[in-house]
Amino acid sequence: QSALTQPASLSGSPGQSITISCTGTSSDVGGYNYVSWYQQHPGKAPKLMIYDVSDRPSGVSNRFSGSKSGNTASLTISGLQAEDEADYYCSSYTRSTTHNCVFGSGTKVTVL
Amino acid sequence: VQLVESGGVVVQPGGSLKLSCAASGFTFGDYTMHWVRQAPGKGLEWVSLITWNGGTTYYPDSVKGRFTISRDNSKNSLFLQMNSLRTEDTALYYCAKDMGYSGTYFDFWGQGTLVTVSS
After folding, report:
1. Phi first, then psi: what are they for B30, rounded to 5°?
2. Mutation for testing the B interface, residue in A44, A92, A100 having most B CBs under 10 Å
3. Is the pLDDT of residue B30 over 90?
4. CB contact under 8 A, B103 and A98
5. Percent of chain B, pLDDT > 70?
6. Angstrom distance (rounded) from CA A60 to CA B44
7. How much is the mean pLDDT over chain A?
């Protein structure tokens, strides 16, 4: 089971918007609306930011939004802030006899 | 919600280790639980899940047959028995609570326990 494909790094200036892509297959991202996104700051545990493709848990800023088209899911961060600098991972349910979910390769977001 | 992992140590290749996760702040027995690991400087890898009553478990091929997940709902505890350890199992191991939705979502995470497999 291969990891979902994400760009290794992205950067943006404060106030700008950036979009992180997450590409899988019809067995995972494309086959189910069970995509989530996690934010991880250095030395910290991951934090759930998006679930069910586009829903936000309570307490997550509405500057974070999710979407999906075909086999590719996306996370958009609007109004980029210094605190958004972190690693971001997507995850999807996967149809497999062994795997239950698969993570993306991760994207390092830098705020310039 | 609080999840506290323990048991991580340095172990030789081929050795065994059992990790524990103490849960509090929610009704532990109502939720599926997971282990997720992260090798140093690398991404996240889902390692195993166990349903609320322990009736169903899942493992990726990378650990299947070597790792066993279990739980004790009377003690609000989750475990991961790791056998035949390999150098590639070196990672920070997180205990994570399932959100309880149809998809697999981890809404709370512990701080992790470090397992180092080295001779």
Report:
1. -90, -10
2. A100
3. yes
4. no
5. 100
6. 21
7. 94
Q: What is the 3-state secondary structure (H, E, C) of chain A?
A: CCCEECCCEEEECCCCCEEEEEECCCCCCCCCCCEEEEEECCCCCCEEEEECCCECCCCCCCCEEEEEECCEEEEEECCCCHHHCEEEEEEEECCCCCCCEEEECCEEEEEC
Q: How far does Cα B102 stand from its chain's mean position? A: 20
What count of CB pairs under 8 Å joins A to B?
68
Task: DSSP letter for B8, please.
Answer: -
Inter-chain residue contact B46 with A89, CB threshold 8 Å: no
How many whole angstroms separate alpha carbon B77 and alpha carbon A43? 24
Average pLDDT rounded to a whole number, residues B35-59: 95
**B78 DSSP β-pair partners:** B21, B71
Token readout for B33 is 């639980």
Chain A nearest-CA residue for B40: A43
pLDDT in tens, A37-51: 999 999 999 999 999
Q: With 90 as the cut, is the pLDDT of residue A100 above it?
A: no
Taking alpha carbons only, the member of A101, A93, A2, A86 closest to residue A52 is A93
